[in-house]
């Protein structure tokens, strides 16, 4: 029995090595806001501050990206978080009757 442990290592070592190999970082997704001709700049800043917890200055910079470039990346998250934030943005926009478009894309 002692020979069995010598050839395989200590009990539990193989299991630990297998577990470490199986763990990997989750895929990440960008949350993107898209420009339209109806949603106000103030509302876009409000959404970024409330949903993404960005300071007002950073939210303003992102809003200007949306306005000038047609889109702005608000954050990068694992899929579940990105999808939840997208749903929150769409809900806020619909409640205020804005057509703000929010998408997620693989990073």
Would you kindly provide a written description of the structure presented here, covering whatever features stand out?
With 107 residues, this protein is α+β, with helices and mostly antiparallel strands. The chain has a single domain, classed as 2-Layer Sandwich (Ribosomal Protein L30, Chain: A). It is 56% helix and 20% strand. It contains five helices and three strands. A three-stranded antiparallel beta sheet has the order 2-1-3. It is elongated. The model is unreliable at 3-7 (pLDDT under 50).
Oligomeric status of the shown chains? single chain
Average per-residue pLDDT, rounded, comes to 89
| CATH fold descriptor | Ribosomal Protein L30, Chain: A
Helix and strand content put the structural class at alpha+beta
CATH class: Alpha Beta
Through-space gap between termini:
50 Å
Low-confidence stretches: 3-7
Going by CATH, the homologous superfamily would be Ribosomal protein L7/L12, C-terminal domain/Adaptor protein ClpS
Per DSSP, the total helix count is 5
Give the helix/strand layout:
Elements: H1 2-8, H2 13-22, E1 28-34, H3 41-52, H4 56-69, E2 71-78, H5 79-95, E3 101-106
Antiparallel strand pairs: 1-2, 1-3
Helix pairs in contact: 3-4, 3-5
């Amino acid at each position: 029995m002692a020979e069995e442990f010598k050839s395989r290592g200590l009990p539990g070592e193989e299991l630990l090595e297998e577990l470490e190999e199986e763990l990997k970082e989750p895929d990440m997704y960008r949350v993107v806001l898209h420009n339209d001709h109806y949603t106000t700049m103030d509302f876009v800043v409000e959404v970024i501050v409330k949903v993404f917890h960005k300071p007002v200055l950073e939210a303003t910079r992102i809003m200007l990206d949306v306005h000038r470039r047609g889109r702005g990346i608000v954050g990068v998250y694992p899929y579940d978080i990105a999808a939840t934030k997208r749903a929150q943005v769409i809900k806020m926009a619909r409640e205020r009757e804005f057509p703000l478009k929010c998408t997620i894309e693989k990073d």
